[in-house]
Amino acid sequence: MKDNKAINMDTLNRFLFDNHPVRGEITRLEKTYQSILENHNYPISVQNLLGELLVATSLLTATLKFDGDIAVQLQGDGPLTLAVVNGNNLQELRGVARVNGEIADNATLREMVGNGYIVITITPKKGERYQGIVGLEKETLTGCIENYFMQSEQLPTRLFVKTGVHNNTPMAAGILLQVLPANENTQESFELLSTLTETITSQELFQLPTDEILYRLYNQEEVRLFETQQIVFKCGCSRQRCEDSLMTLPAKEIDEILNEDDGKIDIHCDYCGKHYLFDAIDIAELRNKKNNNYH
Fold first, then answer.
1. Least enclosed by CB within 10 Å: which of 14, 229, 234, 275?
2. What is the pTM of this model?
3. pLDDT digits (tens, 9 = 90+) for 107-135
C-alpha cells in the first residue's frame, strides 16, 4: 500500500480504455473544497451539494476541452437561491452558495433548489460565448448534468460523485465516463464499465492513489492513465477590481454609503471572505486619479 499522506488530493487525471471506445476522468478535491467552505456556515446538505458541483465543474471543464472560463450555476425558487462554481481550463476553481431560509441536513436537491435549472456558461478566450440550460428533471445533480451531455453533446455520459469527511477533512471526488465521439454500438461496453464504476466507495476515492483506484475498478481492462493536472482554489478578487467597481457608481451614492457606514466602505468577497476597506481619503484619491485620466 502506498503512503496515503503523500497523495496530492487536488488532482485531475484523464484515462482511456484501449479495448472500449470510452474515455474517463477522475478528480479528487481536498484543499480546494475546504477553501470554498471555510468562510461560510453552510448547512451540511449545501456543503455536499457544493462539493458535487465542484467535482462536476472540474470534470466538465476537462471533458469539454476549451481555453477560457466556465460557470456552472444552480438557480431556483427554494431556500438555496444560488449555487455556483466558476473555473477555467487551468483547473482554477472557486464557488459560493446563497441560502435564504432553513435547509435540513438531509435535504434533497429539489427541497433545496425548488423549481430551478442549471446554467452552464462557457466563455472561451477565442470564439463565441456558449450557454446551455438544463432543467432539474432528475433527482440528483449528477443526473441533471448527464442529461446536459445527452442534450448538448449527444454523448452517453455517467458521473459518479462522492462527498464526505475523511480524517476530519471535507472531501469531494468523482469519476466521469463518456463514449468517444463518432462511435456506434457502444452500449454494451459503456454499461459494463458503468457497472464496474458504480462499485467505487467514498473511502477508496478519498484514500487511494489514482492508479490504484483504476486497477481496483478495471483490473480486467487495459487502461491508459494520462498526466496529472493540479487543481487549485483561485478567487480572482483584488483591490483594483473593487476600485474599478466603485468608480462606476454615482458620486452621490458613494458619499451616502460613507456617511451611513462610519466613514468606510467595506467590500466583502463572497468567494474567499476577504474584505477591502475604503475611507473618504481613498475615495478622494480614486476620484482624482479618474479625473486625471480624462485629461
1. 275
2. 0.87
3. 999 999 999 999 999 999 988 999 999 99
